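Propose amino acids for all 119 sites.
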């Protein structure tokens, strides 16, 4: 059996988190190391390691991630002013936690996206 990810432990409540939203498909909680005034992680309850492993059957859940992101942004009062959604994938995408999640960053102007130097 594969080991539970830290996010599965958060979803199951076995490690603490500041969870702000939970339903049958996704869970959202505050990032422990915020990179913006508001930094929320929206995680699939199913422990899909990354976008690289998504299956056709995950399509509804992945669409739902965006619906929940929109709802959280509206609840934060940034639905109109704007926010950023990021999904890191794999080693070169600098994904740290192998459990599919979307970052929602918000709070003022977030500046240009920090693309790395082209090699
Ligand atoms: P990523 O690099 O896309 O995999 O992002 C992983 C994110 O998870 C980072 O922004 C971390 O700060 C965050 N993180 C790691 N452990 C926890 C935790 N226990 N509770 C909340 N956020 C966490």
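Proposal:
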């Amino acid at each position: 059996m594969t080991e539970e990810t830290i996010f599965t432990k958060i979803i199951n409540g076995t490690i603490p988190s500041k969870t702000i939203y939970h339903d049958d498909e996704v869970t959202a909680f505050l990032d422990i190391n915020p990179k913006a005034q508001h930094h929320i992680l929206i995680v699939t309850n199913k422990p899909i390691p990354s976008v690289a492993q998504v299956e056709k059957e995950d399509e509804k859940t992945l669409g739902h991630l965006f619906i929940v992101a929109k709802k959280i942004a509206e609840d934060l009062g940034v639905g109109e002013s704007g926010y950023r959604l990021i999904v890191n994938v794999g080693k070169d995408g600098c994904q740290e936690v192998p459990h599919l999640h979307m970052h929602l960053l918000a709070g003022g102007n977030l500046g240009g996206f920090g693309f790395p130097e082209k090699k």
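Residues 6, 17, 29, 31-33, 41, 88, 94-97 surround adenosine monophosphate (CB under 6 Å). The beta strands are 19-22, 26-30, 38-44, 84-86, 101-106.
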